[in-house]
Design goal:
526 residues; Rossmann fold; alpha/beta; GMP Synthetase, Chain A, domain 3; globular; 29% helix; 2 domains; five-stranded antiparallel sheet
């Protein structure tokens, strides 16, 4: 059975992303587009467009051209949107890096993406310099100033004359974020201009927010959720976007109060803080009409508690990097919302549930793998046709790797995952990547990593280790922590005699997951 949402399909223009954004902002040129929350420094829509054109002209003068890849290695800042759209205007491809990446992780993405240029925030500059040495980066830029890097300010010094570039929206890439997909190491997700424009038009049809809204962007802009749903959608609608460099609860609350924020997009761990932390009582959050939660499931009890505590509504959504990202959303009308549900399919989106073993299509209230088809689906994984074929079938259905069901009204609920990815505070952690690191430890003979449930983070990585020499859990965790970004750190270690494997040698992580769940279930009974 194929499910579709209650909202009518929308028209999707075949235009470039930046033309789409700029065509919709002519009525509010003097309105603040982006505000740096901590400092109050702001860019109006007119100033934003002017900055984009100047930076694009400067990049073109350096030989940056259509199809080239530009890497952004930065925390959230006003200039993030400027550089992203300058690259897009030239037909370039933005690859966004997690600012918490180690130099080694950054170098992998730079090499895999084939990036020509890199811009980094000051806190990332040392890692950026090290990564540049291992890649083919031709010039390193920096937001601010740093030795050996060209200041971003230098890119604003051109006359703004941008060469005309012909863009084929359905085929030309504009973004290349990295995702582990349903399994394995990070892969470049090829998103076209049409993918992102389509998803913003779909969100228009979902009545997400309006030009009168003031948004608080606390989600990282390297992540598809912050990049498209907050930054680009906010710019498209003419909202004012207050930028936070990173999440800090006190600053988050201060900025809502100071700027009279009406809507903030967050993740379940922040919902938990808004529900439980006593600091909330010190701030006036009365301007907040709605919070939007995504990137990981949010249960009905926590949703209800948070709404009572804050006095505003909560909407949930569902999607993934490979779908640009939105495929589902709870209704705008609170009376039609179902707590704990990610809502119904977006306009222009088909959805079905299939039995993970047989591939048979399922009906309402039957659990199966969620598959989606629509104009927001990625073009594929960069230089990886095998992984693309495993994720998107011949009929265009993208297999999400998530297990869910739809009720009799077509509202979807996500209950589990087929895929083995760990979702730590909404960020993907690939077990295979951590296992590869663990196997380089001199005392480790074999290793497997699984998700372990955690109230605050959602899931944390737990390692099962077979040793060949004396070591300790602490030593193992410190070894991994020194080699990966903080969200990938191993949080728990268990030593076992043997890692369960199939006859072909594949790790049977599901066996370990079931063992872990049984252990926790018996502990609760006791």
């Amino acid at each position: 059975m194929i499910f579709s949402g209650p909202n009518p399909d929308v028209e999707i223009p075949e235009v470039s992303l930046t033309d789409f954004i700029f065509s919709s902002i002519s009525d509010f040129k003097d309105k603040p587009a982006l505000i740096d929350g901590p400092s109050g420094y702001a860019l109006t829509y007119a100033e934003f467009e002017n900055a984009v054109r100047r930076v694009a002209a400067s990049l073109a003068s350096r030989g940056f051209k259509k199809g080239d890849v530009f890497a952004i290695f930065s925390t959230n800042c006003l200039e993030y949107g400027v550089i992203f759209h300058a690259v897009a205007m030239l037909g370039g491809i933005n690859t966004t890096l997690n600012p918490l990446y180690t130099a080694e992780e950054a170098a992998f993405q730079l090499k895999d993406a084939g990036a020509r240029f890199l811009i980094a925030a000051s806190p990332c500059i040392d890692k950026a310099r090290a990564a540049v040495k291992e890649s083919k980066i031709e010039e390193l830029f920096v937001f601010g100033e740093a030795e050996g890097a060209t200041p971003f300010a230098a890119l604003l010094e051109s006359d703004g004359e941008v060469p005309r570039v012909e863009i084929d929206p359905k085929n030309d890439l504009v973004a290349l974020p990295y995702s582990s997909g349903t399994t394995g190491l990070p892969k470049g997700v090829m998103l076209t201009h049409y993918n992102l424009v389509a998803n913003m038009c779909q969100m228009d049809g979902l009545d997400y927010f309006h030009c009168e809204d003031t948004l608080l962007c606390v989600l990282p802009l390297f992540h598809i959720y912050g990049l498209v749903v907050v930054l680009n959608m906010g710019l498209h609608l003419g909202a004012t976007i207050v930028i936070m460099p990173r999440f800090d609860l006190k600053q988050f609350l201060e900025l809502i109060q100071k700027y009279r924020v009406t809507l903030s997009h967050i993740v379940p761990p922040i919902v938990l803080k808004l529900t439980k932390d006593p600091l909330i009582d010190n701030y006036d959050l009365s301007s907040l009409k709605m919070i939007f939660s995504g990137a990981a499931p949010l249960g009905p009890d926590l949703s209800s508690e948070c709404m009572k505590r804050i006095g505003c509504g909560i909407r949930q959504g569902y999607g993934m990097t490979e779908t640009s990202p939105v495929t589902h959303s709870s209704p705008a009308d609170p009376a039609k919302m179902k707590l704990g549900s990610v809502g119904t399919p977006a306009p222009n989106t088909e959805c079905k549930l299939v039995d993970a073993a047989s591939g048979e299509e399922l009906g309402p209230n039957q659990e199966g793998e969620v598959c989606v088809r629509g104009p927001q689906n990625m073009k594929g994984y960069l230089n990886n046709p095998e992984a693309t074929a495993r994720t998107v079938d011949e009929d265009g259905w993208l297999h999400t790797g998530d297990i869910g069901y739809a009720d009799e009204d077509g509202h979807f609920f996500i209950v589990d995952r087929v895929k083995e990815l760990i979702k730590y505070k909404g960020f993907q952690v690939a077990p295979a990547e951590l296992e590869a690191v663990l196997l380089t430890h001199p005392a480790v003979a074999d290793a497997a990593v699984i998700p372990c449930r955690d109230d605050e983070a959602g899931e944390v990585p737990k390692a099962f280790i077979v040793t060949k020499a004396d070591t300790s859990a602490q030593a193992i965790m410190e070894f991994v922590a020194a080699r990966v970004a903080p969200h990938k750190k191993i949080r728990e270690v268990e030593f076992i005699a043997q890692i369960p494997k199939s006859l072909s040698g594949k790790i049977l992580r599901r066996v370990l997951v079931e063992k872990e769940r049984a252990k926790h279930a018996s502990a609760k009974v006791v």
